Amino acid sequence: MSSGQSIAYPIIALNLAVADSLDYLATALERLTKGGKSVEQAAAELLPKVIKAHKRIIFNGNNYAKAWEKEAGTRGLLNLKNTVDALPQLVSPEVVGLFEKYEVLTGRELHARYEILLEQYNKTVNVEGQLMVLLGRRYILPAAFEYQKQAAESVSAVKAAGGKSVEGKKALTGITTLTDEFQRRTDRLQQALEHEGTSAAAHAKHFRDRVIPAMTALRETGDALEGLIPHDGWPLATYREMLFIK
């Protein structure tokens, strides 16, 4: 979601946060200077209080490290890792109040944007999930079944000739195991996509908790099959071809 959205709204939110901070500081300085203090004296009194109040957000280490995630939690900072968790912040009382205070957007307009973003999330994940099912059933499974057939025929031919194909049987077991798992995971994803939510938010939570994990699991098995099936039997562009050849 984040990489595909317009930069306009994040810029609006950042400018609004800066405007509110400047408003707060200017109002506080004006109050102190009206009491007879110079601007320098007022700033010297105000800034330590501001730093003390917001010091918990300051961190100069690696913001992507697991240690910082843990530390941020102890400081009471939010760590919203996905769209479904983050979107409700848009219509929280604090955010709505700030947008209305500076007459940027009304609460009704913010709620409309919230519903639209939820709908976009649901449709995007649904399209991607349905496409994965289609690719799996139309391209990957047939290729896996064909390679499984070739491996089985090879093992049978060796056995009929009086030989013993130990590694051939291992290869057959490997492709059979992966093919069966890919079929199961494709079915699970299809079942998860058939969900009907009572609301856009409930539907989005289902996509987050059931559909996306099912898509991730299916991709893992698909990647394993891609690395196993011979090049001339693989019907889709491989990572190597996409990154280095074509």
Q: Quick summary of this structure?
A:
The chain is mainly α.
Largest sheet, in brief, is: none
- Sketch the topology as an H/E string, one letter per element: HHHHHHHHH
* Total of helices: 9
Q: Could you report the average pLDDT, rounded to the nearest whole number?
A: 92
Q: What number of domains?
A: 2
CATH architecture of the largest domain: Up-down Bundle
Strand content range? under 5%
CATH topology of the largest domain: Four Helix Bundle (Hemerythrin (Met), subunit A)
Determine the N-to-C terminus distance. Answer: 27 Å
Q: What spatial form do the alpha-carbon principal axes imply?
A: elongated
Gyration radius from CA atoms, angstroms: 28 Å
Indicate the percent of residues in helices: over 70%
Please identify the structural class as seen in this structure: mainly alpha
Beta-strand segment tally: 0
Descriptive report:
There is one protein chain. With 246 residues, the chain is mainly α. The two termini are 27 Å apart. 74% of the residues lie in helices and 0% in strands. The protein has 2 domains: 79 residues; 131 residues, Four Helix Bundle (Hemerythrin (Met), subunit A) (Up-down Bundle). It has 9 helices and no strands.
Tags for this entry?
single chain, 246 residues, mainly alpha, Four Helix Bundle (Hemerythrin (Met), subunit A), 2 domains, 9 helices, 74% helix, 0% strand
Chain-wise SSE layout:
Layout: H1 8-34, H2 39-54, H3 66-74, H4 83-86, H5 93-101, H6 107-160, H7 166-193, H8 200-226, H9 239-245
